[in-house]
Every structure is written in C-alpha cells, then in structure tokens.
Amino acid sequence: MADTVQGRSGSERPAARDKEGIRGGAGVALIHDSATKHVTGEAVYTDDIREPARLVEVHIALAERARARVVKLDLEPVRRAKGVVAVVAAGDVPGINDISPTGTGDDPVFAAGEVVYHGQPLFAVAAGTVHEARRAARLAVVGYEDLAPTLSIEAALESQSFVWPEGRMQRGDLEAARGRATGRISGAMTIGGQDHFYLEGQVAMAVPGEDGDMLVHSSTQHPSEVQHMVGKVLGLPDHAVTIEVRRMGGAFGGKETQANLFACVAALVANATGRPAKVRADRDDDMVMTGKRHDFLARYDVAYRDDGRIEAVEMELAARAGCSADLSGAIIDRALFHADNAYFYPAVKLTAHACRTNTVSNTAFRGFGGPQGMVAGERVIEEVAFATGLDPLEVRKRNLYGEAPRDLTPYHMEVTDNVAPELVAQLERDGRYWERRDEIRAFNARHPYFRRGLALTPVKFGISFTLTAYNQAGALLHVYKDGSVMLNHGGTEMGQGLYVKVAQVVADELQVDVGRVRITATTTAKVPNTSATAASSGSDLNGMAAQAAARTIKERLIRFAAESHQAEPNEVEWLPGRVRVKGDEIGFNELVSQAYTARVQLSATGFYKTPDIHWDRATGRGRPFYYFCYGAALAEVTVDTLTGEYRVDRADILHDVGRSLNPAIDRGQIEGGFVQGMGWLTTEELWWDDQGRLKTHAPSTYKIPAASDRPRVLEIAFFENENREPTVHRSKAVGEPPLMLGIAVLHALSDAVASVADHRVCPRLDPPATPERVLMAIERLRETK
Amino acid sequence: MTNPTPGASRREFLSTAASAPLVAGAAAGVLGGEARAQTTTGAAMAGGQVLVTLKVNGQTHRLSLDPRVTLVDALREHLGLTGTKVGCNHGQCGACTVHKDGVRVLSCLTLAVAAEGSEITTIEGLADGDELHPMQAAFVQHDAYQCGYCTPGQILSAVACVKEGHAGSDAEIREYMSGNLCRCGAYVNIVAAINDAKTKMGA
Ligand code: FES
Ligand code: FES
C-alpha cells in the first residue's frame, strides 16, 4: 500500500500500514512531513515569508576591535545616508540592553561603552534594502581606545579569567588507585571548535501590531526565550510578544540562544519605525558574530595496569567560553559528564573551566560540550593502549562500564541501562574488526607511502537537560467537528523530523491516519513557556506532551461513547478509525460530530515532565540523565603519508535508538550526525589572527564535509533495544549522540599515523586532524623511529 | 551605461561598473514589482535602473532592476520565487543553483542582466504540473534531505549532473555534486536518489 503524508503524484513510497491498520502510526518509516514541499521549493522558511508592505531591511554593524573602549560613535552620517530609515544603538534600547540567556547581564544587544570581541554588534541600520543599509553603516565614525585582549584559553587560565564557576566531579581514592596501577601517563590536547554552518543563516522578521504588540518570525530553536528577550529589550511583558517558527534550515544548537540577537534587533527596529523589519545576516557576518562549539584544552593524567585496565583518571578541561557566559556553565558540565564516555574509572577527579576570552561567546552545538569531553576520554584510552602495547579496542572493551561496582559514573549515577559491551561486541564481529586489522597490517607493511588505519569507538550519551526545569513540555490538540486534528507543541522543526514523529504519536494514540493530523508552526501563542528544542529532547518531551493531550480527548470521547450507550467506559473498544461499544461501531468522524453536539470539549492541552532526575552541581552528584543512548562506529581510512591527505574508506555504525518512532528519520539523524562529527574532527578548522579576528568566515576557508568527503561505504544498523524507561513508545533520543560516532574517524587516522612508527608511540593527533596536522604528526613520529 | 555582455560574471561586471559611473538620476525607480514601461529591455532607465526581461520557468517577466542585482535576488525578491535559497551568497555552497539554458549556474554569482535572453529554470519549474520530476520524486523516496534548505540547489545540480553525463558511478556523482553543501549530511541519500533518478531520466 502506498502511503504519503501530504502526497503528490510521483512522491509516494510504500510506508507499511502498521499492524492496527492506520497509516503512519508510531514506528513507521514515514517520509518527512515537508518532503514534497522540500523538493518543490514550496516549504516556507523565515526569509521566504511574504513580506508585509513597508518592510525595512536591517544590517547589523560590527565592532572592529577585540577589546576596546568605544570613545566615539558618530552615527549622524549613517542616518543621513540614502535610503536609511532608522539607526539603533545601545542608547536606543527602550528596555534592558541585555540578552544573556541565564541572566548574567553580559550579553548586550549592542556594545555599550566597551567592545569585548571582534565582530560584536555596535548598531543596526534599517533601510529600504539591506544593500543601502550596509553601505550606510560604513559611514559611521567609530573611535576606539584599545585595551589588551585575552585571546587564548591559556591566557585566560593564566589570568584566572572565567565566565562561570568551575565544575567538579570526584569519586574514589585517587592515591590508593594510583598505588594499584603499574603505569601512569599525563599529557594534554587541544580540541578545536566548530561553526554550525546551518545552511539557512540567522534570520528574523518583526511585525509590529496594536498596543505595542510585536510578532516575530524567528529562525529559532527556543521561541519562548526569544519571546522573553524581545520583551526584555522592548520593555514589554511576555504576553505582548509572539514568536513563531514553522521550520529552520538547520540549527544544530546554533539557534538556541544565538537567534535572540537577530530577533531582538528586528523587534527594536520595528518598534522604532512602526514598520515591519527583517534581519538576515550575511554568511560572513553570521560566522563572525555568532557563537560556535567551544574549543577545549584538556590535560589528563591516567594510571593504569598492564592489562589495560584504568585505575585512576584526573582531567582538567578548559573551554573557550568567549566574551560572555551564554550557556558555557552547562556546557562545561556536560563535557565533564562525558569525559568517561562509556568507561568506568575506579577513581576519578574531573575539573572544568569556562574561560573568558575576547572572542565571540561560544554556545550550544549538537552534543553541548559532551563531544569534547568524550574526545578527551578517548585520548586517555589511546594513551593506555600505546603504553601497554594492547590494541586500542582491547583497552576499550576492558574498561567499559559493567556490573556493580563498575557501574558508577564520576557523578555518582549508576549506569543501569548499559548495552555498550554487547553493542561493541556485535560491531566488532559484524564489522570483522580483527580480520580487517590483519589485512591493514599487511597492507601497511607492503605499501610505500599509503597507510591505512582502523578504529572502533563507542558512544554513551546522557539524555535530559541538566537544568532540571527545562525537562518539561506542553502540547495543544484540537479535534474539529469534521474529525480533523490540529497539533501544536513547543518543539521546533529544524530538519530533524520532530513534527512528523510527534504527529505519528498522536495518530497512534487516536488511531487515525497521520494525514488527518495537521502539524502547525511552533508559536508562543499556542503553547507557552516551552524549553529549547535541544539536548536531543524534542521527541521525548513533546511526544509525551502531545500523547497526553490526545489521551485526554480520547478519554472524553470514550466516556461519551459509554454514556450514550449506557455502557461502562471499559466496554468501549478504541479501534483504528472507529470505536465499538455494545456491538455498535461508530466511525471517528461520526463520534466526534456526536460528541460536539453533546457539548463534549474537543480541545486539550498536554503536559509532560521527565521523572526521577536531579542534579546538584555543588556536590557533583545526582541523576542528571533519565537514560543513556549508546552507539559505536568502526571507521577505516587511508592516509597518504607524503602529503597528509586522507580519505575515509568505510564506516560501519551500530546505534541504539531504542524502539524507533520513525526508522527513516532516525537513520538520517545517524548519518548526518556522523558526517558532522567527522567534519568537526577532521577538516573544520576555525582560525583567529593575533588581533582576534576570525579569518575562516565562509565556506571558502571553513571546510565542512561535501558529498565527496563522506565515507565510500557507510553501513548503518540499529541495535536491537528498547528504552528501559517508559519514554514515548520506548524510543530513545537521536539528535546528538550520533555526532560522537565521528570520533572513530579521528582514531582511525591516528591509527594510520601510528603505523609509521610501528604503533609504539601515541601520535597525539589533536583535532581537527586536517591534512597538515596529519602530516606533522607523521613527521613527528618518523623522528622517534 | 555599459551593457554587460551576456554571461558576464558578477565579479567581472562589478569591476567594470566601478570604473563606469552609473547613470545618475533624480527619480527613483520602482523597486521590485514588474516594470510596466515598455522600454527596450536592457536599456538604462532613470535612477540607475535597467529594464531586464527574464524568462523563468517558461514565463516572461519584465523587471526594472538595479544592474547590480543578482539573479537570485531577482528571483526571490522581485519574482517571489523563494524556492531558490541563499546559503553563502558567494558561490561557495550551491544552495542557489538554477539552470540557465539547461546548464547549472550559481544564481548568487550571476547578474540578473546576464540572464537576459536565457531560459531560467528554478525548483518551482521542474515539476510537470502535478507530476514531480523524477529527480524530485527520487529525493522524496530516498529521504535525501533533512532541513531541506540545500534541497532545491541539490536537485537542480543533480538534474544537470545527470544530463552532463557525470552520474556514471557513485564516485563520479560525489565528485560532481561536491559543490552543493548539505550541512545536515544527507549525502548518502542524495547519491542514492541521483542513482535512482538517472535511470528514470533515461540517462
Ligand atoms: S548562495 Fe550561491 S553558492 Fe551559496
Ligand atoms: S538538508 Fe539541511 S542542509 Fe541539506
């Protein structure tokens, strides 16, 4: 049977009716709800919304110093320039000139007095076209009095300059554990940052309404926060501001807090001019002015035994937070939460710092610090492997979490859902690890300058916001008189397929075809006080909230059906598209119509909060995660040792998504996450000059993976599992964990590099492992020979 | 006012434009909107605007444009064809790919005036009425997108890739599609979709 959501001829693909007979219930590999619109260009993104009359376009002018006092800001020439309608700067903010997401007060919309990074917004120009606005902005006369900037993590550590109190986790007796060990190594590594490079850049369009109301179409993962920020800068209560977003052209964490600026600037201009205003950042400006994944400096000290078992780990992680706190506090925490990856450390002490530097304020990015912690943890494993002469996979397997007492994390949470050992064993077997290891060894011995490398790395990633309050969600469901259903929830669609998954959950609950459920744009006017669609939580939270709303309506209908048949509710059978009561079958539409006439409420809200989680940062103890996601990747690469260039020949992935809500969507997330993780660790290099200027601000200089970079062979399999916790249909989150599968590529490269010195020396290949870095590592290792 | 030669790139043209001052005029031209004046197209108008005739998806449009307007801006802002996306505006991401006389071009690097006299096809013009183009259908079949933002560019590039005869093998497809970035990383499915569609396109 051919099924589609909103099909057109030619777009169908067989999507099995689920066993119950409805189309598109939970677990079905349905196409993305916007599939047809994506391929016809009909999908409307924020910049595509039909522009209202008298719209002004806005350009944001940026500071040209990393750190300076602004001693002069003459905007008169800008105001007088052709086409200019308005100019707004710090002094023109009617409310509070701050959009710091955690209330630290260090994120002005426009710099006031002091500039703290090169590229910080100074003022905005509104004109008939953005070209006019941009040209006019150049006429500003800005006087700076330079101050000494802090540009590196090391410099910030030196001056003890932090944006957040340090994070700490400790368990076990380090000294005793070290006493049991037979060897000890310490080292350091740097881990590069990453630009989101969402293909749709930051964009917002504000439309002023009556009574000072403001509607903002914003490409944001966090509409409720944008609402609050717009209210704050305009001096309006939240109820005067509405934020709406139908879809984003990618986000990856880069539109969690970073969308605030653009929405606020659009709203400020709309407020000042009384005209609709659009801000759409040019790509280069976008890359210069928005935060990225934090780069890290990691220092580690590991004590181990000859058999490869780790006894003690001490690690100090320092992240470049940039010029303000943003979400860095939670990000360094998540780095600590993942510095163990899937491994048990008998004794452990972890510290993390959020370093204040005069560079753009770094922010959320898929994995939220977790990947950086995990990369450091995997380096520790690698060090032990080289020190003991064991194969890295052997060391990994020997240190995986296991039965009590080897099930305790550095934050004192027991790992109760561990499938890492089975999962790794399955991939080791199915991916023919040892046979390929032998083949590669033989190849490397033979070939004059190519070297191949292989690595299998696991992923264990904790699911839940570590700020407990964020683990809540709301949904709104209407059933109209004709039996059609409208769904709204607080989650946002950025390509991850959240809308279709939640619609499937509702279709399943009501036992109606998914095509009957209309998915509507996320808006703060329908569901209030929502959390960011982040931390991989989208379908866990919103799916449960929508299910709750659907359940409420279903229960009302069941009660009505029972009453109208003088039956008990438990005598009503809820079947696909109909109910059966006392031998009488009533179709869904008919039931709804009768219920309406009998004045049964056909609209409901749903709410969900994740149970059982808690976290105390001060003591470094708690259960911050509801559950863990697991996965593993086996990557194989070939390196040209004369140039350092390489290619990824093959990757085999085995990933745990619990009971998948939509296998097609989940597969896409795994592939995409892996490719993005691989890009982060290989070719994506951010580079600032000694003036604190980002010089890699376009795809010409910042290399994200292209079609030609993806592995020649990429095999993806789901690990047979279901969530032990009662999540929506026992599924697991899938947004972030696959990114860390890319770590296997870094280690495969390291393995290939190590072969030039007969695997005796740990290559200490720091990411991003660009061809230059690979070549330098090869040269370094050759010298040790 | 110098008329750019057809096919002149935006960069070449801008360097010419810099030395040849634009026609000065007091009256501002109508920004956007289709020009009603029946002036010879390509000719200079008051206010530095030129009349440009664009044939897009089989329809002819007359526009009064600043000669520096790129094809993508003409499509999106003046014709309301927002299916063509802008990812970088510098010819580096492929999101803005359209066909000019059947050949793929980056519409952010093409001046609208340079597209005069050519047949432009955008994503909105690819389907045959309600019948999707085989490449569009294949993208749906293979989930060859996530956020969809790169998709119009990918599809137009893919159609051209097949027509150019550059879809012979997976390796060739990957190479000839490497100018179209997908940050969501849907490459596996994009390649699969192209492989699937190429047979249906009779290649
Ligand atoms: S927008 Fe034209 S190539 Fe990027
Ligand atoms: S589908 Fe999102 S960029 Fe390609």
**Quick check: average pLDDT of chain B?**
83
The string of secondary-structure elements of chain B, in order, is HEEHEEEHHHH
Q: CATH superfamily of the largest domain in chain B, please?
A: Beta-grasp domain
Helix content of chain A: 25-40%
Shape of chain B: globular
What is the end-to-end distance of chain A?
64 Å
Strand order of the largest sheet of chain B: 2-1-5-3-4
CATH architecture title of one domain in chain A: 2-Layer Sandwich
**Rg measurement of chain B, Å:** 18 Å
As an assembly, this protein is heterodimer
Give the proportion of residues in helices of chain B.
Answer: 25-40%
What class would the helix/strand composition of chain A place it in?
A: alpha+beta
Helix count of chain B equals 6
DSSP strand count of chain B: 5
Structural features, described:
The complex is a heterodimer of chains A (785) and B (203). Chain A starts with a strand and ends with a helix. By secondary structure, chain A is an alpha+beta fold. In chain A, α9 packs parallel to α10 (370-388), α17 crosses α18 (743-754) and α18 packs parallel to α19. Among the domains of chain A are: 416-467 and 623-785, Aldehyde oxidase/xanthine dehydrogenase, molybdopterin binding domain (Aldehyde Oxidoreductase, domain 4, 2-Layer Sandwich), CATH 3.30.365; 472-609, Aldehyde oxidase/xanthine dehydrogenase, molybdopterin binding domain (Aldehyde Oxidoreductase, domain 4). Chain A is built from 19 helices and 31 strands. Chain A is globular, with a radius of gyration of 27 Å. With 203 residues, chain B is α+β, with helices and mostly antiparallel strands. Chain B has two domains: 10-125, Ubiquitin-like (UB roll), CATH 3.10.20.30; 134-200, DNA polymerase, domain 1, CATH 1.10.150.120. Chain B has six helices and five strands, in the order αββαβββαααα. Chain B has helices at residues 10-19, 71-78, 134-141, 151-163, 170-176, 187-200, and strands spanning 50-56, 59-65, 97-100, 103-106, 119-121. A five-stranded mixed sheet of chain B has the order 2-1-5-3-4, sandwiched between helices. The longest helix of chain B is centred in the last third of the chain and has 14 residues, at 187-200. Chain B is globular. Chains A and B meet through α1 and α17 of A and α3, α4, α5 and α6 of B. One FE2/S2 (inorganic) cluster (FES) sits between chains B (145-151, 182-184, 186) and A (199, 250, 495).
